[in-house]
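Section 5.1 Outputs to date
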Amino acid sequence: MTDAETALLLARAQFAFTVSFHFIFPAFSIGLASYLAVLEGLWLKTGKGVYANLYRYWLKIFAITFAMGVVSGIVLSYQFGTNWSVFSDKAGPVIGPLMAYEVLTAFFLEAGFLGVMLFGINKVGKRLHFLATCAVALGTFISAFWILSANSWMQTPTGYAVNAAGQFVPAGSWADIIFNPSFPYRLAHTVIAAYITTALVVGAVGAWHLLRDRANPGARTMFSMAMWMAAIVVPVQIFVGDLHGLNTLEHQPQKVMAMEGHYQSHPDGAPLILFGIPDSKARTVHYALEVPKASSLILKHDPDAPLAGLDTVPLADQPPVGIVFWSFRIMVGLGFAMLLLGAASLFARWRRRLYDWPLLHRFALLMGPSGFVAVIAGWVTTEVGRQPYTVFGLLRTADSVAPLDAPAVAASLLAFVLVYFAVFGFGTWYILRLMAKPPEAHESTPANAPIRSAGLTPAPAVRDGQGGA
């Protein structure tokens, strides 16, 4: 391996490491912001103190998660200028404005109302505070909208032209760039994944406290809400994922070939390979456990439909099959485990044992981190499956990297690893510590149990008539 190839590999590893860390926090904060809006809305509608207690409980965790997401995201933008300056130069006229729209809309909205949400509970009325919570939740969604639009354009580029300097520039309507062919599917799939990830964390925390005190109203409420999400939204996600897969087959067929492990074409119906060991040198999957013609049935809705394999794609244009093959199976396998959890919760409701079935609670506790693993596995499938391109079919990854010195990239990667595990490891430890504390067992209102701003500084008690959450 040459020095240039080593530097490229290290630059890719550095970006993969930092973006994986970053992805964890938005995947949680997007869903958690909406959950907080639901909790505050339910408190305003019903007046039940249990919702106010849960709002206070999760607000502290949201504040820390949001902060870590912002900090980890800043690092990514610097890498576009240091490690990927060629990509920034060539794709900047398209990607740059999309990223700017995210700052001008989502970030300003979040920053403008986050302070009111965290510290304004005793200074503004109930409805204005609820508006602030909703605005922050909306901001997290808008942020996902623009980031996914930019990333989706890299997957399915449309609405562009190439100028004399070799740069991608807008051609025609910006709508063609923003709403590129894969964007609606990726937006729906990713946002729903964030909601499910949050629901699984909330459900795990509720299950943890139910195992210790089945009568705690906060634990019962959060567990019930989370299990409704698992039961209702996970089947929707599987359906949306299927639509996303069909869209990927249309626009990035070699990615699907790698996901399915189809090294060879199947003119009479392709099998669904459940498990096996991909071997790109031998061009086969060893010890494959197959369901005959099931892949054609899923992808073409016809068991006898022909499916092309990687033998129809030039070797230089093929993604790394082993990584994509296994990351896809991790994501799908966890998805079906989530489906099982939702079904078990429905059974428990029917038997009136939702709060006193320890086996279900242990299962929910075990599934708590699964949403994070699934979204990272999905991201790996999407991004590694796009290789060897940064802009699919147009700009290769090897042609996107800046002139780099391999030892310098290795040193910065090592520094990132040490700092990230220290800083974000401590932040994660503190979040887990907050989760380990049970929610208030009595249904108080903010009038006699004030929110502690981000869990750090006690706020004055809310006087009657001033409102709060």
